Amino acid sequence: MVCRLANLGDYHAARGKATRNRPNTLKSFGRGVAISHVIYWDGKLTLMNVASRGMMIARSEVPRPMAVTYAERAKWQQIAKAFLDRTGIVLTAMEAENIEIADLGLSEFEQTGLALVVYINTERVCAKELILLPHQTCPEHLHPPVNGQPGKEETFRCRWGEVYLYVSGEATPNPKAKPPKGREHAYTVWHEIVLKPGEQYTIMPETWHWFQAGPQGAVVSEFSTRSTDENDIFTDKDIQRAPTFVR
Questions:
Q1: Domain that holds residue 31
Q2: Count of Cβ atoms closer than 10 Å to residue 146 Cβ
Q3: Nearest to 50 by CA among 26, 74, 14, 30
Q4: Residues 23, 38: contact at Cβ < 8 Å?
Q5: In angstroms, rounded to a whole number, what is the distance separating the alpha carbons of residues 241 and 208?
Q6: Do residue 199 and residue 79 come from a single domain?
Q7: Is 1 exposed, middle or buried (0-12, 13-18, 19+ CB in 10 A)?
Q8: 241 in the same domain as 183
Q9: Residue of 205, 122, 213, 125 lying closest to 164 (CA atoms)
Q10: Alpha helix (H) ranges present in 38-174?
Q11: Which of 12, 62, 65, 69 is 20 to 30 A away from residue 86, measured at CA?
Q12: What's the CA gap between 109 and 133, in Å, rounded?
């Protein structure tokens, strides 16, 4: 029996949090058709039936959520490298090749996301460079305890440009930053710290925070305890920390 999705709303309702590697279990979908899994395949949504032992029974015409292409990643890596060059920060060829483009699953990289260079991340210490485009925002999140260890403590030191950092505390009147359009609901802390080159601020564990670059963009050095970014908790539930790239 074939079941097709009627519209994008049905697609989102069926998809839930399914991914190619971790399908979502459903009780039923439309007209009483029992659906056990929702997976992605070749960019289409595929529905699978338990009774058919995994046989594909339907493919919708709705493409899967957008991800950054490898060509786009290469472009943003080059731009991030140019920011670092402007700052006077030298990378090895391998470091430049491995600049992380954190799209956060939103496909809004110029508005929400950042580029990162990880120099070291051991059981005790971590050092990174964070590169932001003009007015680009790293969204609100905190670093929770992991395996009995406290959440990450981190110090941000501005190297180039200007950064507007927001943490828990008394809200600052007339803040300089504005949340990305359409995602205002996911920004709840408004105590503002403005960082210019040579200035730094330490964020204690389990502190809600977010930051945005000024009109030129920004380069920020991060020094911290061990980083476990995959465990970060974001206010915006649409965010997926692990990057996804497509051809």
A1: 8-63
A2: 13
A3: 26
A4: yes
A5: 16
A6: yes
A7: exposed
A8: yes
A9: 213
A10: 70-87, 93-97
A11: 69
A12: 9
Q: Are residues 57 and 84 in the same domain?
A: no
pLDDT at 241: 84
In a domain, 113, yes or no: yes
Q: How many domains in the chain?
A: 2
- The verdict on 136 and 90 lying in the same domain is yes
Residues 131 and 94 in one domain: yes
CB 236 within 8 A of CB 59: no
Tokens 């941000």 belong to residue: 156
DSSP character at residue 135: T
> Could you tell me if 240 and 137 lie in one domain?
yes
* Same-domain status, 56 and 78: no
Per residue in 113-145, pLDDT (tens digit) is 999 999 999 999 999 999 999 999 999 999 999
**CA separation for the pair 163, 200 (Å, rounded):** 10
